[in-house]
């Protein structure tokens, strides 16, 4: 099982939350799996866009270690691996949707960098 190299210095629950689902990729992975429910690695990679295999693999390992994502491997040829959210992972989705709604109210809507993943939480301007 994946283990982090250094002991974390977390002093409050907010820091723990941001460590678990913060950052550029972890929240996107959670949102994609919340929408799609179950994906193989290649499908998840395709949904993410602009993420390298190394970064996706590292983020998945951390999310699995934090029990946000479940990884199921099938003994088949070719090998098949599927990813889905755990109960703990599903509990994070409303938090991420709230952050998305907040950001939608205060972020410049004219930005050319709007990503499809950001629309997965069903945020509607003015709601």
Automatic annotation (TrEMBL):
Gene3D superfamilies (alphabetical): Winged helix-like DNA-binding domain superfamily/Winged helix DNA-binding domain
> Could you tell me which SUPFAM superfamilies the record lists for this protein?
Winged helix' DNA-binding domain
Alphabetic keyword roster: DNA-binding, Transcription, Transcription regulation
Which Pfam families does the UniProt entry name for this protein? Answer: HxlR
Which top-rank group of organisms is this from? Bacteria
Where do transmembrane segments lie in this chain? none
Looking up PROSITE patterns in the UniProt record yields:
HTH_HXLR
Q: Which Gene Ontology molecular-function terms are recorded?
A: DNA binding
Residues in HTH hxlR-type domain copies: 12-111
Instruction: Write the protein's name.
Output: Helix-turn-helix transcriptional regulator
Organism from which the protein derives: Candidatus Lachnoclostridium pullistercoris
